[in-house]
Amino acid sequence: MNTTKHxxxxxxxxxLFSLGAGSMALVTLTMLPGLARADKTAxxxxxxxxxxxxxxxxxxxxxxxxxxxENGNTVQLEVAVDSPMTEKDYVKAVHVFADGNPVPNVASFxxxxxxxxxxxxxxxxxxxxxxxxxxxxxxxxxxxxxxAAVKVTIGGCGG
Length: 159
What we know:
CATH class: Mainly Beta
Structural class: alpha+beta
CATH topology: Immunoglobulin-like
Low-confidence stretches: 27-35
Number of strands: 9
Distance between the termini: 56 Å
CATH architecture: Sandwich
Radius of gyration: 24 Å
Number of domains: 1
Shape: elongated
Mean pLDDT: 84
Helix content: 10-25%
Number of helices: 2
Strand content: 25-35%
Largest sheet: 6 strands, mixed
Order of helices and strands: HHEEEEEEEEE
């Protein structure tokens, strides 16, 4: 019978590996939850940057999103801006935000008069029930906005 005793002492390699793994776990646990937090103030700050002190006007922007999204992982979005799209009057950009997502910037679409129409469609991921906001920057410097509430029934990027 073999009665060899197993040593309970750790060698230097095992100690270093344990310290490295513990450090990595600590960094992950302290940093990542902060990145995944949904925060309406982050969306407000991003919108404020685009507004640059201006006040957004209602009208001209149409946001087509479902009132109820059965799956937050893929939510249809279409945004359109009523504009003649001429050299003197056109949509420069449309920015879409979701005020409950960990990263509120959903998309930005850029247009020129050559675009012909200011319409864009895509899919987005929503973490939870929240507001989707669209801002349209016009060639004359004015900004128009609209928003819509989307109820998410199955978890998106946050559950």
